Amino acid sequence: MATKSDNPGNQSVNAQEQMVAGSAWMTAGSIFSRILGAVYIIPWSIWFGTFFLQGNALYGKGYNIYSFFLIAAIAGVPSAIAKQVAHYNALNEYGVSVRLYQRGLVIALGTGVGIAALMFFGAPLFTGGDQNLIPVLHSLAWAILIIPTMSLTRGYFQGFQQMAPSAISQFVEQLARVIYMLVTAFLIMRVLKGNWVTAVAQSTLAAAVGALCGLLILGVYYWRRRGYFRSLVRNSNNQLVVPANQLYREIVTQAVPFIVLGAGITIFQLIDQYTFAPIMHWAGHYTEAYLNDLFALFGVNANKIIMITISLSSALAITVVPLLSEAYTRGHKREISSQLTNAFLMFEFVMIPSALGMSAVARPLNIVFYGHAQEALGASILAFSSYLSIILGLYTVVSALMQGISQNKRAVKYFAVGTVVKFVVQWPLVYFLGAFGPLVATGIGFLVTCYLIIHSLNYQFGINYATIAKRTNGILLSSIITFGLARAVVWGGTWLLGDSRIMSFVVVAVAAVVGGYFYVYTMLHNRLADDIMGPRVAGLRRRLHIR
User: Fold this and answer.
1) What is the DSSP string of 227-263?
2) Which pTM was predicted?
3) Alpha carbons 459 and 327: distance in angstroms, whole number
4) Which of 4, 92, 300, 529 is least surrounded by Cβ atoms within 10 Å, i.e. has the fewest?
5) Taking Cα atoms as reference points, which of 164, 142, 185, 149 lies closest to residue 29?
6) Are 313 and 397 in contact (CB under 8 A)?
7) How far is CA 128 from CA 124, 275, 346, in A?
8) Sign of CA dihedral 530, 535, 536, 537
């Protein structure tokens, strides 16, 4: 058995390298998947024509409900499995990790069948009066049969710090889903001239098709690496005997907080879905079609795009949990503090420029994805949502950090406080601010939760605020200049080329290249990227000939 270094410095460097490598895989997989999941909307919106906003609102409402059911079906087990597998692997008890995965499969299959049945047969109870949601929920129920097993297997790989299988399966899942969506939408809306509700139902059935393909990819990876896993089990200490009931109890105990925290953004979206229209009816006389259009703008359209940037921080969060769990198991408080600081800096490094950059190109970007329907309002909502994405991304990171150090109950309590705040401010903000109200209420609620969690982390382990502040200044300055450059490109490009869909795409692409290159150049030139991402970025500096 290989010996482990007891040098805290070496462990800190190795942990940072693991974090960066894992984040690279998970970020790549998540970003490509999110881009695919957003780009499909361009042809999809064209083929739906005048029914686009109504269809997208129906799609978004169905997916919000489905996301909540899916989180309940998954029950937080994948993340809990990743955390517990990392825990037992750190003790060199790989045999227990395998048994944990096997017991998790039983839970995943059982919850998948039960929750899918509840969603399918109970669909009329969750429509909020919109009968068009019933066939959409029926289609989405099939995905819940497959996804728990797929997600559990991803968690198992992540517990071994093997991020590539998860990232690749995630990309294949999204690719298969998008292909099925576009083929069925084209056939129903353009070839058969069919009903738009049927087209939306088939688009949501694509989730099951994608999940099946993603699961097959994971199966291939597991089959190819089965010898490696078996060798780890053979060379384990095999001194720890954990009864089956205890394994089930550990999975459930760890998983329940993951349900609440993992569903955090979805819960806030459901609050918006079920309260926005009633509050707006109080505020004035609006038709259901108009309110559906508004919901599509702030609850679906903008959300779909900002989730691309939020996925950056989500990838970080998934990577950090097993690493923190190992450090917590070993009792290395200094390593925990160092990883917390690194996690916040890595989050800022990618999230702040991404959010500001998206805000800078909000108008042409909105035109590229959604055309000129409600163009001005849609662009304003997207720009505001871009800033909001920083808070949402921060929530995904800090909630994962709390789970990584086994502070699950405390994290749930802090989320509950934020949810109460969201409920309190929701009515007046929606009443007076309309479509912007739910976004402001969401920002306030998550800001409260993030403050409470960060305060707790600092109190227990210490966060190096001096280091964070110093490097944040550099990130923020470069991000603001990047924002200014992108805005200048948008202004000049729109004036020269116009605002058609194709020309808007050109403007966004040029703005992204100009702003992105400036940010990367400054981060590499002043060596801030080295301090945050590690020495590996030196190779990129050499390739770009930056001194």
Assistant:
1) HHHHHHHHTS-------HHHHHHHHHHHHHHHHHHHT
2) 0.78
3) 18
4) 4
5) 164
6) yes
7) 8, 10, 41
8) positive
